[in-house]
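step 4 of 6: structure.
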Amino acid sequence: MFLACEVVASICLTAVPPATGRPATLPVSVQAPRLAQSGTSGSSNAPQSGPVSGYMDFHFSKPTDGPGVIDFHRFVLLFSHRFSDRLRFVGELELEHAVVEGLEPGGELELEQAYVDFLIRPEINFRAGMILAPVGIINERHEPPVFHGVERPFVDTVIIPTTWFDAGAGVHGSLGRGFRYRLYAMAPLDATELRAEEGLRGAAQHGSEAQVRNVGWTGRLEYVGVRGLQTGVSFWRGNTGFNTPNFDTSVGLFELDARFSRGRFEARGQHAHVFIGGAGELNDAVGRTTGVNPNIADQLRGSYVEAAYRVLPARFPHDAAVFVRYEDFDTQFRMPAGFVKLPQFDRDAWVVGATYWVDPDVAIKFDYSHVRSKSTVVPAPRSINVGLGWWF
Amino acid sequence: MRSASLGLAGALLMAASPGGHQDRPPARVVHVVAERFSFTPSEITIDEGSRVELRITSEDTTHGFRLIGPGDIDVEIPRRRRGEARVVIEIGQPGEYIFECSKLCGAGHGFMRGTLRVRAKAAAP
Ligand SMILES: [Cu+2]
């Protein structure tokens, strides 16, 4: 269609610098401008992009009852390649906790995304490779400068196991009027990696010779049609019992979320509910083979709400926000018959802090995190956290 | 500042469009916000032959605005609070054109796409 189009008259581009900068313009006629030539060129302060992009984040955490820990948590490189207007590649390679040594606990080197997009029409495009599960706010949008708090929310750790990625394929597109969707088949979760305390966190196979006796189906419908509002619902459904051949288990997840901003005010909220089928049989079977009952729940549930306020007026080149987040999460919300719910897994948390953007792509973060549980015996963690996260 | 830069854009338009409509200002200004990982609005409808100015700002990092097809437009959208990109378009061929983010901006970069509809004059109300 595009090849047949003829452009009549003129096309002109200008990039207008902020009020404080020197006017810098790039007039372009119908010739194709190169992206690198445009933007706020003319200012020596303009960012320079290299051939790769990525993000990093680096934390110091001091629990109230233990020594401080410093961690280069994430070093992530992103690559993209355009084979043509209809064929794209995107890759995301992540090193977690800085060091990976054979057979040693510690860091992880993960291929989080490596997919090819076949762009057919706005309504339907195909994607295949290593892909992100389209569930929740953080899983597909996790660059450190775009969320508050040094660590990701607890709900996005134990209820939605971010970064949740696996081998898969599916379709995505726009339905018009601001609605868009994705629908993928992905490698299933592994039931034997479910945990009472950390829920789904370790259950993804991450495309590493993943078992696909069954596939997991996942999708998201989202609305981005109004400035300042992004909202979505997502699901996951799949059998998970490839390591327990005598019976089958399943995981179902339903999630809804919204982000809102107006002027200096920002808010977001998310709710996720997980249903595990066959949890009782799984507990019996794992208990028989290992001698330890994993006490996996029938249902897990978590929600959070967060409000933030940008404190610096728009004329400042820097930006800063204060935020507060309340999370309520329970990895043993409902137990299978015959298994006892443990109160230390019914938790809530207050996280309060600030984000200071030295640059729109460089965020210094500070927060205080106070987790509480229903247990009167097991202490719940509290910590002071400082982080530096950047995108380039 | 806003009116000053409007003047600038107008001047450039004249420079870039030889003959005919130098003194014709853009018929319409459309404000577009780019943010990880969407454009709002993501569907823009203009009339065939009308001159429209897109003013594109970012809510976060640097994005790109690439219009596939006419003119091979590919411009950088400066980061939050670092200004705006302006694209003046006048397309004489009705149809649907795709625009997309052309600057890798994060994990969901591949979803940053939108549609520019150029509606035939006769169909316009
Ligand atoms: Cu982008």
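step 5 of 6: annotate
 - Chain A has one domain: 3-391.
 - Residues 279-290 of chain A form the longest helix (12 residues).
step 6 of 6: archive
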